[in-house]
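Allow me, if you will, to draw on your knowledge of protein folds for a short while. I have a record of one protein: its chain in single-letter code and its fold written as discrete structure tokens. Could you please explain, in whatever detail you think fit, how the structure tokens follow from the sequence? The record follows directly beneath this note:
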Amino acid sequence: MNWFGRRSGRDASRPVLARGGAGAAMHGAWPVSYEAQVRDAYLGNAIAQRAVRVVAEGVASAPVVGDARAVALATARSAGQDLLETAAAHLLLHGNAYIQMIADGAGGVGELYALRPERVTVEADAGGWPVAYRYRVGAATTRIAAEDAAGRPQLIHVRAFHPTDDHYGLGCMNAAAGAVAIHNAAARWNKALLDNAARPSGALVHDPGDGGVLSPDQFARLRAEMDDAFAGAANAGRPMLLDGGLKWQAMSLTPADMDFVGLKAQAAREIALAFGVPPMLLGLPGDNTYANYREANRALWRQAIVPMGERILGGVRQALAPWLGGVALAIDLDGIPALSEDRERLWARVAAADFLSVDEKRAMVGMAANERRETDDGQ
């Protein structure tokens, strides 16, 4: 088997591929680079980080079944890295997961290691098909050929769908960037409000009665005294002593001005939506999409965790086939507690189907057919 089919005689029939869109870049007021988006979303936003961790840790905790050697490679830790969790996080954030197949020194695969996706660049041939991957760390660059001399893959590229790019996938952070920016801005607003005695600001009005105005030195001294003696959480509620014709005029915010509270909650729900996590599971108020927590958890596994895990394991399974022969590798749906009710309903329907044979029923629930046993006393 040849991974990209270059030795199969299909070169003339393969379409030409090309790099399309701007990758992780975006236009507008949001961050445009992957590193900046990671800082704002995963490192600086609790909702986005928790959403990613819920899906990635769920993929890592899902039971994996198949050939023992393939399961061991997919579930082993390499240099402390959990392969499935790391690959799932990379797919969510960047849209690409690159898994290097490290040789064991005896002509086989010794371990699998997920590379940081922002460091990897696809090297394509004249037709646009990948022939190698360049992994850059600082000034050092490592070239990893797509295949070895025997035509076996050396790197697994699992990518999310990108409608305008043939080489790179599209992560969820692009869609969540606007909501993350709004949520972070609302958090900074609340922090600034707390620093300013946790109430709307006011104005010092100078009214000496004779129409005089403050000199620049007086104005600067008054501002410095306000910052030192009255601003900040430590000075909350401290009474003011005013002289020289000064009076305090409080400024309240209208309900429309205070709408940023609801805006922040809506932004949090949009962030959860972008990463495929029901807002209810993140403790966000005002979300009544699911009747209860159990249904939301089942939807998370069915719509986010299981498809993500199957996508990664499918790439690993296909890449390991030339090395280990035909291998089986998949998530064991029967071993997921959140999906136990679905399994129970399936068993009940199958058991009530009297028109099916025993072997047909066993096949429908994923079990092998019964071995035929002789019942004659003489056999």
Observations:
- The longest helix spans residues 293-324.
- The radius of gyration is 30 Å.
